[in-house]
Amino acid sequence: MDPQTVTELEAAAFRRLRDHLLQERPDVQNIDLMILAGFCRNCLADWYRDAATERGITMNKDQAREIVYGMPFAEWKAKHQKDATPEQLAAFEAAQKRHG
User: Taking every annotated instance into account, which residue ranges of this chain make up the domain SMc04008-like (predicted)?
Assistant: First the structure.
């Protein structure tokens, strides 16, 4: 495959993952993603911002999160984010030790 096709396929896969997390599974909490996969929506936003920075594009954290969340982060939190349970916090801490 040529490099442009690879880039287009990777971009399409990213958009599908982003849209899946936004539209199909907004119920999955970021902390659960972090526990199981070691990344979350905020990580995707950080990676997006890093890619922009590498290309000389200025983007702050809020702008990147709005791209990933499809809305301002505060709005997403109000609609979808729940307080972490003690069990989630304990699992997150254990996961951090495994991945750290």
Answer: 28-93
